[in-house]
Amino acid sequence: TPQGPRPTAATPPVTGPYATAVPALKPGARIAIVAPASAALDAADQAAEWLEARGYTPQVMPASRSRLDAPYDYLAGADADRLADLHAAFAAPEVGAVWCLQGGFGSWRLLDQLDFDLLRRHPKPFIGYSDITALHLALQRHAGFVTFHGPMLAQDLLAGKRDPTESHLLSMITGQVGQGAWITPPPYATATELIPGSATGRLIGGNLALIASLIGSDNEIDTRGAILFIEDVNEALPRIDRLLSQLAAAGKFDELKGVLVGNFTRILGVQMDDAQAQGMLYPLILDQFRSRGIPVLAAWPSGHGDPNLTLPLGAQVTLDTGRGGLRLEQAVVH
After folding, report:
1. pTM to 2 decimal places
2. How far is 136 from 150, CA to CA, in rounded Å?
3. CA–CA separation, 127 vs 148, rounded Å?
4. Residues 96 and 23 sit within 8 Å (Cβ to Cβ)
5. What is the DSSP letter of 70?
6. To which H or E segment does residue 79 belong?
7. SS3 198
8. Which residue, 28, 157, 291, 314, shows the most beta carbons closer than 10 Å to its own?
9. 62 with 74: CB under 8 angstroms?
10. Predicted pLDDT at 3
11. 3-state DSSP helix/strand/coil percent for the chain, to nearest 5?
12. Residue range 199-246, pLDDT digits in tens
């Protein structure tokens, strides 16, 4: 089996209006390449070369080069090995950032075994999205430092996603994007104002299916006073409707300040390109949020799309639909 006994998580939730900044990535720093979910195998060495070409020192963690046999062949190594990679990467003082190789499936299997005390003692930029949302939610809930919903090495950067996918992430984690800065999409990927307004709150969220799947667990999303970001891929409109309704029924929309709707790509059953298909989603969004009196900005280019803008989860931000962007109300690195 890929795992041992599962202890019960006992770490209390972090309290406070926003997450704390993490140390900035320094030039030439060591970056740990991790695969907390699915395998990418050969991509680990290619990712190492990509980092070296940008002046960083890569450290490929062992499970990044692994894949289990069926029926667990969707996992990059046993749970214990993937967990050990994460713990070792955070604990190592010479590692300046922990960067996920790709998403897939399986990050949620690690949540009740994470050593949050260790993670809190060694905060550093943690980067990923998609299935990695499970880890973002757990870290926001129990560790309390900013994490980065951003492009992954195999899934995005080796695939050559358009700028500013790479440049925006590196600017943010190295400290070039600071308090007071605006995050706005490039001109070719303008966001859509669904419900006008401006609101300030803690940015939280990620992949919609992962957010919904953790409702009722020790790692469920805390949306009180927050700006909620959602995105997804390969979902049908009825399922998106059901996922949104599940969050509404769980009270997760009751104390929201605003909503940022990211890329919903490859919507099943919709015979349109991704840009056109986004419009099919808007009635579902409006059904949930029109009566709540909160601003909603959609077609935001983060998640399973191109480009993939980095978002600092846990940070205090202002969502301004008229400006079509987010303003950082705190430093996200120091």
Report:
1. 0.95
2. 11
3. 5
4. yes
5. T
6. helix 79-91
7. strand
8. 314
9. no
10. 56
11. 35, 20, 45
12. 999 999 999 999 999 999 999 999 999 999 999 999 999 999 999 999
Decide: 135 and 36 in contact? Cβ < 8 Å.
yes
CA distance 95 to 303: 25
Q: Give dist(CA 194, CA 196) in Å, integer.
A: 6
Q: What's the rounded Cα separation, in Å, for the pair 214 and 267?
A: 22
- Tokens encoding 86: 């994460």
Task: Return the beta strands (E) in 108-257 as ranges.
Answer: 126-128, 147-149, 182-183, 192-195, 198-207, 226-233
Quickly count: other Cβ atoms within 10 Å of residue 59's Cβ.
Answer: 19
Which amino acid would we find at residue 230?
A: I
Question: Which whole-number Å values give the CA distances from 166 to 67, 152, 158, in the listed order?
Answer: 27, 10, 10
120 is written with which tokens? 């809190």
Q: What is the pLDDT of residues 143-192, one digit of tens each?
A: 999 999 999 999 999 999 999 999 999 999 999 999 999 999 999 999 99
> Is the distance from CB of 174 to CB of 24 less than 8 angstroms?
yes
Q: Tokens standing for 112?
A: 């009740």
Tell me which residues are annotated as active site: 130, 231, 304
pLDDT for 8: 41
Tell me the average pLDDT across 114-136. Answer: 98
Task: Name which of 200, 133, 171 is nearest 309 in CA terms.
Answer: 171
* Cα 203 to Cα 200: distance, rounded to the nearest angstrom: 9
- Are 136 and 212 contacting, i.e. CB atoms less than 8 angstroms apart? no
CA dihedral for 95, 40, 111, 211, sign (positive or negative)? positive
- Token output for 322: 């008229």
Cis peptide before 301 (omega within 30 of 0): no
Beta strands in 89-137 (DSSP E): 95-100, 126-128
- In this structure, what DSSP letter does residue 56 have? -
- Distance separating alpha carbons of residues 37 and 51, to the nearest angstrom: 21
Strand partners, 127: 99, 148
Tell me: pLDDT of 118 over 80. yes
